[in-house]
Amino acid sequence: PHAGRVAWITGSTSGIGLAVARHLASEGAAIALHGQAAASAETDALVREIAQTHGVPVRHYGLDLRDGSAIAPLAQRIAAEMGAIDILVNNAGMQHVSPLLEFPAGKWDELLAVNLSAPFHAIQACAPQMLERGWGRIINIASVSGLVGVARKPAYVASKHGLIGLTKSVALEFATTPVTCNAICPGWVLTPLVQRQIDALAAREGLDADAAARQLLGAKQPSQAFVTVEQVAALAGFLASEQAAQVRGAHWNMDGGFAAA
Ligand code: NAD
């Protein structure tokens, strides 16, 4: 369904973003992969693998999203090299866990820059061509932490609540156009971002990795099972589809019941 379309997925060299990139490639979209670091043997291999598996153009772009002023120029470069961006998935995100009273102010600024300001800059850069060309999908990977509070994650929770607010605002502004904007709110998904939290918990409590993972899920995720990256990618695929044309400003949770509790 996306043959001839271009998708830019931020933070797509691992985890959820990579699964979304693979899913959209399987539906025919050309893929702008993006990660924080410059190209490497690993990203070259990913580019080749996705291009060969799905027969679509794939390129890798490295940019540290903490530099907000570099985001519009990157969007322009992608559009010049691959074609106008039709699907923007704001997926890149970082976590920092610390009690509020010890939370480093610099981390707060960094986290808000990556998780909230970068999506704003990317939307501002990509939306004009979507509106001009009469089709567009903006999908923001928020979190269940955008719906409920979590102790010791003040910046992450604030950034994800903010991202849902941005999603609603953009959706309303474009409500009469063929450009939609929605958010996805995953619960615990086993990716490098969560593995680091499991490792920290294991070290802190003297647990093995399995026990730490069970404790992480046990506390918050009623299903006691991780969401998979493929499941999140399938939901992003639906939000990018024609059938989702009237899904606007939604924040859709996929969280094993996390937000229902
Ligand atoms: P991940 O660590 O595998 O992926 C994060 C991606 O963001 C990486 O590609 C990384 O390069 C990129 N990124 C981080 N900081 C960056 C920076 N400064 N500049 C450019 N890119 C940067 O983790 P993931 O779990 O796949 O996370 C993807 C998104 O899903 C994040 O927004 C995260 O908050 C969200 N999320 C994850 C979970 C979960 O349980 N894993 C749950 C809810 C929401």
General description of the model:
With 261 residues, this protein is α/β, with parallel strands linked by helices. The chain has helices at 15-26, 41-54, 71-82, 105-133, 154-173, 192-205, 209-220, 229-239; strands at residues 6-9, 30-35, 58-62, 87-90, 136-141, 179-186, 251-254. A seven-stranded parallel β-sheet has the order 3-2-1-4-5-6-7, sandwiched between helices. It starts with 5 loop residues before the first strand and ends in a 7-residue tail after the last strand.
Please tally the β strands and state the result. Answer: 7
Termini gap:
37 Å
Question: Into which percentage range does the β-strand content fall?
Answer: 5-15%
The helix content, as a percent range, equals: 40-55%
Radius of gyration: 18 Å
Give the helices and strands as they follow along the chain. Answer: EHEHEHEHEHEHHHE
Shape: globular
> Main beta sheet: strand number and arrangement?
7 strands, parallel
Spatial order of the strands forming the largest sheet:
3-2-1-4-5-6-7
* Ligands and ions found: nicotinamide-adenine-dinucleotide
Helix/strand-derived category reads alpha/beta
Poorly predicted runs of 5 or more residues: none
Our count of helices gives: 8
Mean pLDDT: 97
Q: Can you give keywords for this protein?
A:
binds nicotinamide-adenine-dinucleotide, 261 residues, seven-stranded parallel beta sheet, 48% helix, alpha/beta
